[in-house]
Design brief:
Layout (H helix, E strand, L loop, with lengths): L5 E6 L6 E6 L2 E5 L5 H11 L8 E3 L5 H4 L2 H7 L3 E5 H4 L3 H4 L3 E4 L4 E4 L2 E7 L8 E7 L2 E6 L7 H7 L4 E5 L4 H6 L4 H8 L7 H11 L6 E5 L8 H11 L3 E2 L6 E3 L6 E4 L6 E3 L1
Parallel strand pairs: 3-4, 4-5, 5-6, 10-11, 11-12, 12-15
Antiparallel strand pairs: 1-2, 1-16, 2-3, 7-8, 8-9, 9-10, 13-14, 14-15
Helix pairs in contact: 9-10
Length: 268
């Protein structure tokens, strides 16, 4: 598979989320939970101009995914896309110039074919995203308590798979969250655990898959090494360093790594 796309994870976690998918002719921003200054700074750190994005897709209305959106749109004039439910979910978002799609629909922008699919979260109408260019593909799925059938179909055989791996189940049970919050996180409209993500990988990962990125890790109920080791075991990968935050299959064909809240990373 020709590598035409790059996934720039600017931030991933409960304090702010933003991802940029870059292709040969333009880029797509997915979510904006960071300030404009921080978003641009992190892009510069990775050598990419986030402000040049041709469109932004908003997956859902939680603050860690939309906190920076209103200010961003005052300085940026690309296409803004979300589900109808997401676009109408917050008073501050109702004035923004959204194009709406039904999860399952798609659109084209800057040489990229963008598809959406429904996810399962405690918001109005959430969705995940796949981006294709030529034969290359990136799939992004976070903030979902279960992997919906539509998500599973969309994410199978993408070259870069960015999949939520939010919490270690034992850490969540024994952690500091109150009972109601533990139930929410572990519920069908909450967040995928390491074990749930790992269980999905054997059916999602194919010969085309080159990178699995553990996304939206909980700072209280997970660790990058814990998530990576769990996902790596599901695909026959082995740790590459003493910290266990990078892994690969023995032939080097498939990498497993974790995205972070404070350290942006580019995945080629």
């Amino acid at each position: 598979m020709e590598r035409l796309l790059t996934l720039h994870v600017l931030a991933s976690g409960s304090k702010g989320n933003a991802y940029l998918v870059e292709g040969p002719d333009g880029s797509l921003l997915v979510d904006d939970g960071l300030s404009r200054r921080e978003l641009l700074r992190r892009g510069t750190e990775l050598g990419v101009d986030v402000g040049a994005a041709s469109a932004c897709v908003v997956t859902h209305e939680h603050g860690d995914h939309v906190r920076g959106l209103a200010v961003w749109c005052r300085h940026w004039h690309g296409r803004l896309v979300a589900s109808e439910g997401t676009a109408a979910a917050r008073p501050a978002m109702e004035a923004l110039p959204f194009e709406t799609v039904v999860p399952g629909e798609g659109f084209s922008v800057a040489g990229l074919e963008v598809s959406t699919f429904p996810t399962s979260h405690d918001v109005r109408q959430p969705m995940g995203v796949t981006v294709r260019c030529g034969g290359d593909a990136v799939g992004i799925c976070t903030d979902t308590g279960v992997l919906t059938p539509e998500a599973a179909r969309a994410l199978t055989a993408v070259r870069i798979l960015a999949l939520e791996s939010n919490h270690d189940e034992a850490m969540l049970r024994g952690g500091p969250y109150p009972a109601y919050l533990k139930a929410r996180v572990a519920g069908e409209r909450g967040h995928l655990s390491n074990a749930q993500a790992a269980a999905a990988l054997p059916s999602l990962v194919t010969a085309e898959t080159e990178a699995v990125v553990a996304m939206h890790l909980s700072q209280e109920n997970n660790r990058p090494s814990v998530a990576v080791r769990c996902l790596a075991a599901a695909v026959g990968a082995e740790p590459l360093d003493a910290l266990g935050v990078h892994a690969a299959t023995p032939d080097g064909r498939l990498r497993v790594l974790a995205a972070a809240q404070d350290a942006p990373v580019s995945v080629f």
